[in-house]
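Annex B.
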Amino acid sequence: QVKELVLDNCLSDNGKVIGLSSDFENLEFLSMISVQLMSISNLPKLNKLRKLELSDNRISGGLEVLAERTPNLTHLNLSGNRIKDINTLEPLKKLPNLRSLDLFNCEVTTLINYRESVFTLLPQLSYLDGFDADDQEAPDSDPEADGDGEENDDYEEDDLDEEVIDDEDDDDDDLEGEEEEDGLDDEEEDEDEDGEDDEEDEADD
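Acidic leucine-rich nuclear phosphoprotein 32 family member: predicted structure tokens.
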């Protein structure tokens, strides 16, 4: 039943990660970052695997294993490996569903016309190193989460608007309070003056 398996930083034994077998037949995501893999020849058959993370290993070739063991792969990350030539990627042509390939920090990325060559070699690819052939960045992989984010933004803006309105109401209340106090002060002054006039009249009498 396991669909995702992360084995990052687990040391491999002669290119084999202990415990990883074809028993994981429902696996859709497998991450083996920095496990000192020199070869993927011991990768078990995982027919349902979609995403494979193999960055920061020592892989320099032997990619034909992927078409045989992971035929439905859509995302492959080989960043930080020892891939030097475009021809090394040729076996990936046999992965018809491959849409995204990452080769950051591989020597092959320093070659002249690297991006054009890879897109020509692998026409099924939509994104190489996070960008398409027209240098447009790959969209976020979780648009539903983005949608929720927009709703939250709207919600927060509404809250802010209400707070601003409340603040304005408070300001108005303060002004009214000050005006009432001023009015009271004026009335008290008038009463004091009237009292003084009455006292003067009594003194005259």
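The radius of gyration is 36 Å. Strands lie at 4-6, 29-31, 51-53, 75-77, 100-102, 127-128. Further annotation is deferred to the next reporting cycle.
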